[in-house]
Design goal:
With 321 residues, the protein is α/β, with parallel strands linked by helices. It has helices spanning 2-25, 44-59, 74-81, 95-104, 112-115, 140-149, 164-176, 188-197, 207-215, 263-278, 280-287, 298-318; strands at 33-37, 63-67, 89-93, 116-131, 154-158, 180-184, 202-206, 220-224, 250-258, 292-293. Helices cover 46% and strands 19% of the residues.
Length: 321
C-alpha cells in the first residue's frame, strides 16, 4: 500500500512538472498581465488604462491595472523591480520615480536603469509655465525682470520636493538667475488651487491640467518647456523662443518591465504598443489628454531615460539638493 502511494505521488509529480513545462512552452501571453501604476487613480492611471485596453485587445489576455501609490511613485516602482521577469508584470512609468527620484535621492533603494527593462515609450506632453494674473508680466522676459527686481518675493509651487515641477523651477533659477522661493504641496491639485487664489505666483504643469484656467483668464501662460510648441496652445512660445536657452523638458509615459525579461517578450510588447500608437484610435485617445504618441524601440526608450536622468541629476547637483 505504501509502495502504491509513493508510485501515485511520483506520477502526480511528473504530471505536474509536465504541465508546468507545457504552460511555459505556450505562446506569450497565456494568462492575465498585471500593470502596476505607482500612483493613485487619476493622472498616469488614465493613460495606463488606455494602454491596458489596447494591449488586451491585441494580446487576447486581460491587462489588469493595480494602483500602488506611495513615496512619489517609488513604492510601486520598487515592487516592479522585484517582480519575476516573465512579462506578466509591467509598469506604466513617468519621470518622477524613474529619472527624477534617482537624481534627488542618493538613498533610493532601487536602480531604475539597472533593475528595469524599457519596453516602449507611449507618449509625451509639454509642460507650461503659468503665473497668477496678479503678476505684472505678460512674457517670460517680463517675468524674469520682475523677479529680479523683487528677489525672494515670488513663490513657485510644486507637487512636492524633488518632483519634476520643482526641478523645472530650479532650472529656471539656474538659467535666468532669478531668486524665487519653492513652496511644496501634496499634489498638483492643491498647488493649482492656491495658484488660482494668488497664494503662490508661479507653477509648471501639464498643459491640460491648467488649460481651462488659462482660457478662463484665471492663470496666464508664459511659455512651454518642450522643444516645439504645444498643439493646444499654438500661439505660446517655447522657453527658447521666449529667450531662455538650454531649458527643455517634458512629461512622458512609457512601459517598463523587470530587468531580465526575455527580449522576445519585450519586442512583442513594443510592437503591439507601437501599432496601437499608430492607429487613429490610439492617437485620438492620447490627444484627449493633451499627449502625443512617441513611437520607438526599447533602445530609444532606454536612451531617453539615461539622458533625462543625467539632465535632472545635473540640475539637482547645481541646486545642492
Amino acid at each position: 500500500m505504501t509502495t502504491r502511494r509513493v508510485l501515485l505521488s511520483a506520477i502526480a509529480a511528473i504530471v505536474a512538472i509536465g504541465s508546468i513545462g507545457q504552460a511555459a512552452a505556450q505562446p506569450y501571453p497565456n494568462r492575465p498581465i498585471k500593470m502596476i501604476v505607482p500612483f493613485a487613480p487619476g493622472g498616469s492611471d488614465i493613460i495606463a488604462r488606455l494602454v491596458a485596453d489596447l494591449l488586451t485587445a491585441s494580446l487576447g489576455q486581460p491587462v489588469i491595472i493595480e494602483n500602488k501609490p506611495g513615496a512619489g511613485g517609488t513604492t510601486g516602482t520598487k515592487l516592479v523591480t522585484a517582480a519575476e521577469p516573465d512579462g506578466y508584470t509591467l509598469t506604466l512609468a513617468s519621470p518622477g520615480p524613474i529619472t527624477v527620484a534617482p537624481a534627488v535621492n542618493k538613498n533610493l533603494d532601487y536602480d531604475p536603469i539597472r533593475q528595469l527593462a524599457p519596453v516602449a515609450m507611449v507618449a509625451t506632453a509639454p509642460i507650461v509655465m503659468v503665473v497668477h494674473p496678479g503678476v505684472p508680466a505678460k512674457t517670460l522676459q517680463e517675468f524674469v525682470a520682475h523677479a529680479k527686481a523683487n528677489p525672494g518675493k515670488i513663490n513657485f509651487a510644486s507637487p512636492g520636493f524633488g518632483t519634476s515641477p520643482h526641478l523645472f523651477g530650479e532650472l529656471l533659477k539656474q538659467r535666468t538667475g532669478v531668486d524665487i522661493v519653492h513652496i511644496p504641496y501634496r499634489g498638483s491639485s492643491p498647488a493649482i488651487v492656491d495658484l488660482v487664489a494668488g497664494q503662490v505666483q508661479m507653477f509648471f504643469d501639464n498643459v491640460r491640467n491648467v488649460q481651462s484656467f488659462i482660457e478662463a483668464g484665471k492663470l496666464r501662460a508664459l511659455a512651454v518647456t518642450s522643444d516645439t510648441r504645444s498643439p493646444d496652445l499654438p500661439d505660446l512660445p517655447t522657453m527658447a523662443e521666449a529667450g531662455v536657452d538650454g531649458f527643455v523638458g517634458f512629461y512622458w509615459n512609457g512601459v517598463l518591465a523587470p530587468a531580465g525579461t526575455p527580449a522576445p517578450i519585450i519586442d512583442r510588447l513594443n510592437a503591439v504598443i507601437n501599432d496601437a500608437l499608430r492607429s487613429r484610435e490610439g492617437r485620438a485617445n492620447l490627444a484627449r489628454f493633451g499627449m502625443q504618441p512617441r513611437i520607438g524601440s526599447p533602445q530609444d526608450f532606454a536612451a531617453l531615460i539615461v539622458a533625462e536622468h543625467e539632465r535632472w541629476a545635473a540640475v539637482a547637483r547645481a541646486a545642492n539638493f
